[in-house]
Here is the input.
Amino acid sequence: MSDDHTTSNLMPDRLTQALDELGARWGWFVALGIVLLVLSIIAFVHVLAATLVSVIFIGVLMLIGGIGQLIHAWRVKQLAGFLFWTASGLLYAAAGIIALVNPITGAAMLTLLLGATLIAVGALRLWIWFNNRGQRGWQWLALSGVITLATGILVAVLWPGNSIWLLGLILAIDLLFQGWSALLLGLALRQRR
Here is the structure.
């Protein structure tokens, strides 16, 4: 029991030490926050460019992933999954090439995939809530499911017209929140010193 007591006393000391170390670098968090906020403003102003850059980045990753899967398939060709790995690699590489050659088509496909994913996740959350609706506090899961499902339906209904701006807008919003988070964390760490 004394070991548990000693360990529990060390935890606040370790946390304090970690916060002190982070506090010494508060300026980096503030600088990162400012950079991310500037990038979010650029992404908001140039939503189409942000969408296309995102699609090209994803296309490169998919092409690399597809090539990796093809290499894997041909290295284990004696195994039963050879055809599956080959087909998967070819599809992944083809999708990456499509995104690189025609980013607007890539944006349309990714936007449709986003809408379908949101619909599926929203429906799953509602199904989980429905099966556990007697539990206390689960109405928040139902609300989350309704919002996610409605967002997915909205994305799907507005498709393909929303394809050229939606991914860039999501990127801009993410950069905005990440920037504010890093900036506020840096300022909080500065005040702690």
